[in-house]
Write a structure and sequence with these properties.
The complex is a heterodimer. Chain A is mainly α. Chain A has one domain (2-289): MetI-like fold. Helix content of chain A is 75%, strand content 0%. Chain A contains twelve helices and no strands. The longest helix of chain A has 37 residues, at 80-116. Chain A is globular. The two termini of chain A are 18 Å apart. Chain B is of the alpha/beta class. Among the domains of chain B are: 89-169; 283-533, Rossmann fold (3-Layer(aba) Sandwich), CATH 3.40.50. Chain B contains 20 helices and 20 strands. Chain B has a six-stranded mixed beta sheet, with helices on both faces. Chain B has a six-stranded mixed beta sheet with strand order 16-17-18-13-19-20, sandwiched between helices. Chain B has a four-stranded antiparallel beta sheet with strand order 2-1-4-5. In chain B, helix 13 packs parallel to helix 15 (432-444) and helix 14 (402-415) packs across helix 15. Chain B is globular. Classes of the chains: A mainly alpha, B alpha/beta. Chain A binds chain B through residues 1-2, 5, 9, 12, 180-182, 184-193, 200, 203-204, 287-288, 290-291, and chain B through 14-15, 335, 337, 358, 361-362, 366-367, 369-371, 373-375, 378-384, 389, 392-393, 396-397, 421, 424, 426, 428-429, 439, 442-443.
């Protein structure tokens, strides 16, 4: 008996389950590898890069990729490789902070609307519809332009335009479980409405939320880069992928392709990573996958 | 007519191949109704899917032959199978609501199959569809033609499914659990209809069911399946009175029927003497003039209309009725999950209906009134292990933590017979019976005085139902509980309850001592309910049970009925 249950116990532990999900699906494994690379470059990148990302060197301006400058140099002689790597931290922070904010606010609003329903539900839904009625990027532009050109405001703007997706998803997931047997059982066990929501209903919404989160991280990065590209939000000379693509775009016609291509590639790499990550994250937070 | 020889079906799963059917052989002759009986996982449905060649992805017929009127069903081309399905062999599925397209008018769904098999043209399809509806005894067929499935009751939907299955005059009808989930009177109506139609048209039929009693009543011959094998086959009376295989004996034992006690549901080797329970004459729960009215879309809905009853300390009261009779509403009000519109619920003399349901979670009496829910799967949080589920009331209301909590959880698991190794499992890793035990352990964790059992065995196989019912009897004796047992099945209620209340349309139509109500029902509705229950044939020798004198003339051997 004990022998038979031992392997089951190994799979029951969270780490064992994560390893199982990673082993079962090579794409997930690849996505987590790519994600780890991004995280590591965000944490250690600034300490490891060969050049100061802001140091100009007029003598070495606009050099093509070489052994000394892997991604070449820009118009004032800054090392593109160092700048691309250093920018990872800023771009990731913006998108993670924005997604975290919309996740929290969206979850709370969605829980309220889905659990209590009634007029509260109608009011919240119309409010979210109003946000969704705007072209989202234009709305984000408007918010940053109105609030001021800072990194915090980019985060708020990105969070606001993504929040309705979370709120709607959570609302639907909470709504279908509102009268489930296990919810009524938790009430019989003396749990208040808030506790039932937090411990019984909301965790069951996590698997689809994880897919949304990972896709959203990609969108948020694109959104932040897009705002910088049109000159809102992060301002030069800060290293940021959107700004670098914007600056580099001027030089593509004259043949200096590396200025725009490498930050663009990194942007694509990050978005691609997050898109691949979704299914794996969902499998990890779903106990039903632990068979 | 249909010959199946050494049929084996295999499924390819994540954990390797699984043999669902392992070499079974049987025949269906013309005009015969064959019953295939078995519990979940026995391969009975898979057999029928294999014959129709509608196995889900990953399933293949590994070996064996299946021949229908000279057609090789295993090797026939898909194009030929499409012709056979519906016209030669047709099928009635378990859940009529799932089998019907929810956004198409039922009349159109019947036309679909008629036109698919060129039995109707654009011009006469409507008339033929209405004729098909009339054939399954749907009143006002002309009007029903335009109904959508959601507008019809479960029994009505199943009639529509029958109409679709029979529209093209097939020669073999496979009915896969056609009445599971239907009320007992509806079950009888649908089964009688199906049997009459089969006899009238000289069709053959395979009835797949987990209910041995139902199969015995409607079939000419029964196969008992277990783990993909046929363990016994024969005449229903013979299987009931003298089962040869130990598994069929276990199934026969576990089928509740007149004249048996709750202990005799178990295999002979596991029977223990039934505990003696003394019912006190102090009332524990008194329900007085309870009323519940909902605000419906088309005016108020009167779910419970002024009912009163009493549950004494140590008593088990059965609340019986069909879906929509208000029994679930009543139990939700008693357990304080719902507020009553009017009336009192006196618990130990104090009115708990006056306390709003929302605030009752903090009431000191919360721990004393608990409930076992109908669907064990739905009532367990899929993200919580069995241990976390049982811990919930102990933590919240009992204030237990750490080693004391663990000790209590293990004590409870032992009490309900759940192996301790299973405590770390999630609901999807547990079987139906194990989930039911977790639900019961959670409900009795705080040693409540009053336990409401809402059809706790409705979703379970009969052999597991037998075990769970016995567990409930033992717990009641051991913990001195009072039960309100809510069920649609009078025969199950009879096994457990001292007193029975029959509800219909929100009102109590009859109540009294269980024995009296069962043997001398006064109300017409109670009589209908009793008559609708499947009547398995009596066993030749009735074993060692004191209750056996209850046996009476109303349970005739089924032969007479079939001859008529």
């Amino acid at each position: 008996m004990t022998q038979a249950t031992d392997p089951a116990h190994a799979a029951d532990s969270t780490l064992g389950h994560v390893l199982y999900v990673l082993r079962a699906n090579p794409v997930t494994m690849l996505a987590f590898g790519m994600f780890a690379f991004l995280i590591l470059s965000a944490i250690f990148g600034p300490a490891l890069v060969p050049y100061d990302p802001l140091a100009t060197n007029a003598a070495a301006a606009l050099q093509p990729p070489s052994a000394a400058h892997w991604f070449g140099t820009d118009q004032v002689g800054r090392d593109v490789f160092s700048r691309v790597i250093v920018a990872t931290r800023l771009d990731l922070s913006i998108s993670v902070a924005a997604v975290a904010l919309s996740f929290v606010v969206g979850s709370i609003l969605g829980c309220i609307a889905g659990y209590w329903g009634g007029w509260l539900d109608s009011v919240l839904n119309r409010f979210l519809d109003t946000i969704m009625a705007f072209p989202l990027f234009v709305l984000a532009m408007g918010i940053v332009a109105a609030l001021g050109n800072t990194i915090e405001n980019i985060i708020y703007a990105t969070a606001i335009i993504n929040m309705p997706f979370y709120a709607r998803l959570v609302r639907a997931e909470v709504n279908i479980r509102r009268d489930a047997g296990f919810v009524r059982a938790a009430k019989l066990a003396g749990s208040s409405d808030i506790r039932v929501l937090a411990t019984q209903i909301f965790p069951n919404a996590l698997p689809p939320m994880m897919v949304q989160v990972s896709l959203n991280l990609g969108w948020a990065i694109l959104n932040a880069a897009g705002l910088s590209f049109i000159g809102l939000g992060v301002s030069p000379p800060t290293a940021e992928w959107g700004i670098m693509v914007a600056e580099g775009a001027n030089f593509i016609v004259s043949g200096e392709w590396w200025l725009a291509v490498f930050p663009g590639l990194w942007l694509m790499f990050a978005v691609f990573t997050f898109n691949l990550l979704g299914d794996g994250l969902r499998d990890i937070v779903d106990p039903r996958k632990r068979t | 007519m249909l010959t199946v020889k050494d049929l084996s079906v295999m499924f390819q799963t994540r954990r390797g191949p699984v043999d669902a059917v392992r070499g079974i052989s049987f025949e269906v002759s013309k005009g015969e109704i064959l019953g295939i009986v078995g519990e979940s996982g026995s391969g009975k449905s898979v057999t029928s899917y294999a014959l129709m060649r509608i196995l889900e992805a990953g399933g293949v017929i590994k070996a064996g032959e299946a021949e229908y009127s000279g057609i090789d069903l295993r090797r026939a081309a898909e194009r030929d199978m499409r012709d056979i399905r519906g016209r030669e062999i047709s099928m009635i599925f378990q859940n009529p609501r799932a089998a019907l397209n929810p956004i198409r008018k039922v009349g159109h769904q019947i036309e679909d199959v008629l036109r698919q098999h060129a039995r109707a043209t654009r011009y006469d399809a409507r008339a033929k569809a209405i004729a098909a509806l009339e054939a399954v005894k749907i009143k006002d067929a002309e009007a029903r033609y335009d109904a959508y499935p959601f507008e019809l009751s479960g029994g009505m939907c199943q009639r529509i499914v029958c109409a679709i299955a029979l529209a093209c005059d097939p020669r073999l009808l496979i009915a896969d659990e056609p009445t599971t989930g239907l009320d007992i009177t509806t079950q009888k109506a649908v089964m009688d209809l199906v049997r009459d139609l089969i006899r009238e048209r000289g069709m053959s039929s395979i009835l797949i069911t987990h209910d041995l009693g139902l199969a015995a009543q409607y079939c000419d011959r029964i196969l008992v399946m277990k783990d993909g094998l046929i363990v016994e086959q024969g005449d229903p009376v013979q299987i009931f009175s003298d089962p040869q295989h130990p598994y069929s004996r276990k199934l026969v034992d576990a089928t509740p029927r007149a004249g048996t006690g709750v202990r005799s549901l178990l295999p002979a080797s596991e029977r223990k003497p039934e505990p003696q329970i003394a019912v006190s004459d102090t009332p524990l729960v008194e329900v007085r003039n309870l009323v519940k009215t909902y605000a419906g879309k088309s005016g108020p809905v009167h779910a419970v209309k002024d009912i009163s009853f009493t549950v004494f300390k140590g008593q088990c009261v059965g609340l019986v009725g069909e879906s929509g009779c208000g029994k679930s509403t009543t139990s939700e009000i008693l357990v304080r999950l719902m507020d009553a519109t009017a009336g009192q619920v006196l618990f130990d003399g104090a009115d708990i209906a006056a306390i709003p349901a929302r605030g009752f979670a903090r009431d000191p009496r919360r721990a004393q009134i608990q409930m076992v829910f109908q669907d064990a799967t739905d009532s367990l949080n899929p993200r919580h292990s069995a241990r976390q589920t049982i811990a919930e009331p102990l933590r919240r209301l009992g204030g237990m933590r750490g080693a004391k909590l663990d000790a209590r959880i293990e004590e409870l698991a032992t009490l309900v017979g759940l192996p301790l190794a299973l405590l770390s499992r999630f609901p999807h890793q547990l079987s139906g019976g194990q989930k039911a035990r977790v639900g019961i352990a959670r409900a009795v964790a705080l040693e409540p005085k009053f336990l409401i059992l809402d059809e706790p065995t409705a979703a379970l196989d009969v052999s597991i139902q037998a075990v769970v019912l016995n567990l409930l009897v033992d717990l009641r004796a051991k913990l001195g509980l009072s039960y309100l047992f809510v069920s649609h099945d009078l025969h199950v209620v009879r096994l457990l309850c001292d007193h029975v209340i029959v509800m219909k349309d929100g009102q109590i139509v009859e109540q009294g001592a269980t024995h009296d109500v069962m043997t001398h029902p006064q109300n017409l509705y109670t009589k209908t309910l009793l008559a609708a229950a499947p009547k398995p044939p009596e066993r030749r020798q009735i074993r060692d049970f004191p209750h056996s004198e209850d046996t009476d003339a109303q349970h005739d051997p089924i032969h007479d009925e079939r001859a008529s």
